[in-house]
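Budget justification, computational time. The allocation requested in the original proposal was used primarily to generate structure tokens for proteins on the priority list. As evidence of use, we reproduce two of the resulting records. The first is shown immediately below.
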Amino acid sequence: MKEKNIFLIILGVIVLLIVGGCGIFVGSYNRLVSMEEAVKAQWAQVENVYQRRADLVPNLVETVKAYAKHEKETFQLVVEARSKIGSIKLDPGFVNDQNKLALFQKLQGELSSALSKLIAVAENYPQLKANENFLTLQSQLEGTENRIAVERMRYNEKAQAFNAFIRRFPNNIIANMFGFREKAYFQAEEGANKAPKVKFD
């Protein structure tokens, strides 16, 4: 009788361990899925704001062209930078590859640089600086640049939370079993550690 009770206790403990282990396993897996989806959703927001900027570019170029016909080199830089970005195929695994994300970021940086040159052209054309359409586009572009910074920061936060979670035990075992991979981060751009030059007219 005593042996039967010990057997039942041991069996009960084993069942509790199995049920508890399954609960941890299922809970961790479901959390991994939710966190990965949050990273993807935030990446979509990053793409949206970059697309908004890309959509503003043709109107901005055409507005500046109307006043600054001799700035062909600047227009060409903007058009080429936008074209390079458009040639990137953003597949779902994009956020898993730091090299792809770095290339995307580099090309976006080239467009930012070209747009800065385009905006600087306005300084030489007082009529352009006073053009309502140009001022509206410039304001929208500045607002979009701010949104880009915010959405990139939010993306990095989601990616960091996911990456930390998949490195913890026992999540790392579950992540490896089901192919969950670390997410890439946006890095500080070259020269970001230097204070911008402020110029007052």
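The second record produced under the same allocation is shown here.
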Amino acid sequence: MVWVPADLTRERCSRCLGDPPFERANGSSLPGGGDLDVVVQPHLPAKGTAHATAIARVRAEDGTTVRVVALSSVRASRAAAAAAAAAEATKAVAAGPTGALRAAHEAWWAAWWPAGGWLTLDHSRLEAFWYVQLFKFASGAREGRGVHDLLGPWYVEGTPWPDLHWDLNIQQTYYFPIEANRPGLSRTLPDYVEWLSNTGNLASNAPPAWRHDSAAAPNGASSLSGNETCDWDPVVSPDGACSTQPPTAVGNLLWTLELVDRHASAYGNETLATEVLCPLLDRALQFYAHFQVDDGATIHLPPTFSPEYPGAVGADANYDVALYRWGLATALERGCGGPRAAAWRETLERLTWFPIDDATDTLEIYAGVPYGTPHRHYSHLMSIWPLGLLDLNNASQLATARSSVDLWLATPEEDSMFYRPAASAMNVLTGQNAAAFDNVTYLLDRRVEGSTWYREGAAGSCTETPYAAAWAVGNWLVDARDGVVAFFPGIDDVVRLDAGDYAAAPARAATAQFYRLATRTGAVVSGKRELVSSNATHFVTRTALVAVEAWKSSGAFRVRTSLARPLAIRGAATFEELGGEIVEIAGLAPSETAALYSARAPPATFAFSPLAGCPAEFNHWGMVPLSGGGPCALPVN
């Protein structure tokens, strides 16, 4: 969701409004009976490509009408796209009776649901929302198929977002399936990036003189080909080629690779790291090396565009300093680069620090340009989240992070809310859990539709923000940073009910369970919180147990938990307390699990099960709630 044409203003040009109107192909009959309709979506005239949707309507054995929908990949012409979609739909119908198709479909879902992680909350509307996002994602992207863009495979009447954006939206979509332990869903992004690398499309985004060793991602809307279309904020080289280079946004590929790195880390996929992540990190870092500025002491970056911030561009954009620093450090940690590693290490050591406004102790947009205009994007805050480059155990850096987030959230862009999941994540990191809860529920109350799609102001619907909001809910329950898994970082032990909503968030989810969620440490983790007591002014909860499963690797795992001491452990492992609520669990073999708990208050059971919830909210999203029961509340002792 960015509109930045060539002059880098916030004006949106008429030629940037999207692809040409769709076209209906002539309908036909299926060989065994039934109808087939095909709709073709031409792409930008300069590209000449298209994709198509075919809908076959056939009579099932029980007399009902069944619709079989097939989508083509991007094809070189309209006719080729229409033929491909029609062939897939016809093949599916011819494969067997519609009852068999339905049975296979139902069997896939029955096997898929229990295969990944899950969570349960005492806040039933949030819990239901989380599961609807999981259902949507699995309906829109599966391993071996296409990447999930702003709309996925669905047609939405009147929306201006039938495309893929590289400056926030593609990234914000994919945090959720990684956390939910759904590698088949999250793998669709690394597969897409690998395909773009193999086709050379990412290299083609760099200026011609750099394409031998560089790659980049375009800032604005793009087709699935992933290359610069010349219709959104292009920079034209002297030879007339459109490219991604200063002064446009240049860090988008590195941000996307942060998701690839998360996937590889969560699932222990060293092949992905070696064969996809490292080669693309190499190209993305070389892209920066071509335009970085060395003053002899410090390495700076020339004027680039901090996504969506209005006004003139500036040097040392926090967006790019953070992404460049992350990319260099990650490449070195993973052993990428070979002969380039020494140069990368020197660059990392000499790269300028994040520009900070001394007057407010907040991260600037560019060096010497403090945050001063309402801004929905968090491009200048990347060092806080998602990259985690500020040391929040350092009092000075924590103060900078908190001041920066507070200033940003105190002056948000009017009529915009897609930033709120990221705001929630930053609130958790800076110890502002009530604000984290409020940012998500405020978004759901005011901008998420009954279908759980999201509408940005007066514009049409899209769905990357709901996925990010679901991720944020899970982030209250578990987060991993610097090799440590934090359990329930966004849930307070005591929640007051006699303060304002924003200060105390009395509707907050406090009792919760989660089972086998994925983390960047390569461990699969589970945890339980339970109610201790409540009255008219507050309620108290506590962590009952935390569990770590060594999924594909063995070794030591570090966790942070507020479990009452002394601790005990269940399972074939040992533990050692390291201070600061950090515990190291060691001795786990692959697929083994260990559970920590308080020896003073052992859990009644080590089993995980859904919470009772609130029946009045069970079918909140898109349906009329079930009858019976009013607003639910925690019991008062």
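A brief technical remark on that second record: The radius of gyration is 25 Å.
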